[in-house]
Amino acid sequence: MQAVKVFQRISVFMMILSILLILGSCSEEKIPELSLPPTPVLSLRQDWAVIRFSYLPLYTEASIESEVAGLARQGDVHELLEQSLETELLYSRQDYWYKIALNDDHGEHSSAWAFAAGLEFYSSRDEALNASGRMAETQGF
Fold this sequence. Notes:
The chain is α+β, with helices and mostly antiparallel strands. The protein is 27% helix and 33% strand.
């Protein structure tokens, strides 16, 4: 009989201990918010373009009404510098203008605006160069 009373006391003690442990672990501690910086692997940013058309007119401003700055040839690779704030309907496509870097034979740097319909976009220079090479093979230029 005495063994039963000891067992009951141990059971009550264990129950009280369990309740105290459960209540003690229920704190309202705020978990800090985790924010990760963008990584190149996850980034969708496209910084390079290959000219799609045989000849793509380049403009001094992001408008077909501006002065023609020159022509880009199919397969040319250019770094993207800026995107226009507004879209425009051109070549049956509503899209943005992109300011592209131009390099002449003398190492001079300049820029001009090209409409997105005439560009293929890539995230790295190597990807753009590879695409340009494939374009040259299939188009024969």
